[in-house]
Amino acid sequence: MQRYFVKNSQIIDNKVKLMDQDAHHISRVMRMKIGECLICCTEDGKVAKCEIQEITNDFVVAAIIKWLDEDKELPVFVTIAQGLPKSDKLEFIVQKGTEMGASCFLPFFASRSIVKWDEKKGRKKVERLEKIAKEAAEQSHRTKIPIIKEPVGIHELIEESKSYTYKAVLYEEDAKLGEKSNLSSILSKLDSGDSLIAVIGPEGGLTEQEVSFLCQNGFIRCSLGKRILRTETAPLYFLAAVSYHTELLG
Amino acid sequence: MQRYFVKNSQIIDNKVKLMDQDAHHISRVMRMKIGECLICCTEDGKVAKCEIQEITNDFVVAAIIKWLDEDKELPVFVTIAQGLPKSDKLEFIVQKGTEMGASCFLPFFASRSIVKWDEKKGRKKVERLEKIAKEAAEQSHRTKIPIIKEPVGIHELIEESKSYTYKAVLYEEDAKLGEKSNLSSILSKLDSGDSLIAVIGPEGGLTEQEVSFLCQNGFIRCSLGKRILRTETAPLYFLAAVSYHTELLG
C-alpha cells in the first residue's frame, strides 16, 4: 500500500489532510479514488491505515481507520558522517542509505573533499536531499525519514559525535593491512536504542591526520573487508553489515 | 599502485606486454615513466609487481620483479542472478557488485522484467558490462575479474544453479512476513571454496510462482532485513552480508 509521511499538524479529529506533492501523487500519479486505502506515517514514527474520504484539486482527506504496529527501523540510530564527495554521489548515498536504514546523514568537509559548498545554494541542496530521503523512506516502507544535516568541519563533527554510544572511522588503509575484527566487535556490543556514527572519507580517502584526530576522540578504526570500496559504496556496506548483524544474525 | 588485468598470453620471459587501453592508460592518463612500478593480475588470479622497461605509442613492456601473495577475493564464489532491470541499473549492479566481491553476474528474464534484450545489441551490452567489471576490479584491488553471462530464462538459470553449493532467493515478501534467519543460516554453513548463487527480482519483484519454482529446485527464501530494497540495492546488501560474515565476523 502506498505510504506518505505527514506532520502531526496534518492530523485533526482522526483525519489526515494531505497536500501539495502528496495530494498530487495520490490523485494524479496513483489515480486513487474515494474509498481506497493508503498508509500515513507520523513524525513520531506511528503508522496508520487510512481511507480516502475526499479528493479536491488542492488536497486529499483520509480517515484513520487503524493504527498499525509496524517495526521497520534498525534497532540502533546510525549516522553516516560522509566526507563531501563529488557530483551527485551524496544524493546516491542518501537514497540507498535510507533504504538500508540510516537515521541521519552528516556531510563534512574532509581534507581531500574538493567540492565547494555554496552557502546560498547549500540550503537548496539540503532540501533536495531531504526530498530524496523522504521518497526513499516511503519506497522502502520505513516509518521514519532520516535527518539531513548541513555540512560541518571536522571539529564540529567531533563535537557532534560526543553524544553517540559508538564511533567508527572506516579506513581503507586498514583493509590493506588486514584489520578485520573491529567492526564486528562494535556491532556485537550494540544494544537496542544505542547510537552509532561512522565516518567515511571522500574520493581521495581520509588523511592519516584525520584518522588520528578521530581516534584521539574515541573513534575506532574499522575496515570493510579486503577490497577497496568507492566512497559511495562504503556507507552501503557499513549499513548492510549493521542490519545483517542486528536484524538477521541469530 | 595502479593495477592492470592481463591475459597469460601477454606474459613472455617474465615480461608483460600491455597494449591498447591499458598502454594508453599507463602512458597518457597516468603519465608513468620507465622505471616506475605497477601491478599486473593474471587470468588465474596471480599478482605481480612489475617495473616499466619500455614505452612506445602502441604498447608498454614491464618486467616482473616480484610475485605478490595477495588475497583480496571473497572466500566463496558468489553469483548474482539478477532479474533484468530497467535502464542502466545492471551497469550499476555490476560496478558496485564487483567492488563488493561478486564472482559472476547472471542476468535472467524474470516475469516482471520489462526490458527487451536485443540479440544483436546484447553482445555489445555484455562487452560494456565486462569493461565496467574490469575497471571496478582494478579500482577495488581485486585479483580476479567477475564473469558476465548473457541473460537466460528461468529454466536455464535453474540448470545453471545445480553446480552451486548453496542457492538463495531474495524475496521481499518474506521481509514483510518477518523471516529473518535463513540468510545467516546459509552464511554460517559456508566453507572456503563453496559456491553460492542468489536470485534477485527486477523492479516489480519476483512472482510467487517464480519463487515456488526456485524453491522446488533447492533455493532457500531469504529476506534482507525489515525494509524493502530496490532491485539494485538488494545485491549490494547481500554481498556486504557475505563479506561481513565470511571475512570480518570472528
From TrEMBL, chains A, B:
Residue ranges of coiled coil: none
This protein's UniProt keywords: Cytoplasm, Methyltransferase, rRNA processing, S-adenosyl-L-methionine, Transferase
Database matches in CDD domains: RsmE-like (cd18084)
Cellular location(s): Cytoplasm
Keyword S-adenosyl-L-methionine carried by entry: yes
Domain Ribosomal RNA small subunit methyltransferase E PUA-like: residue ranges: 20-64
Superkingdom of origin: Bacteria
SUPFAM superfamilies: alpha/beta knot, PUA domain-like
Similarity comment text for this entry: Belongs to the RNA methyltransferase RsmE family.
Record's protein name: Ribosomal RNA small subunit methyltransferase E
Organism: Calidifontibacillus erzurumensis
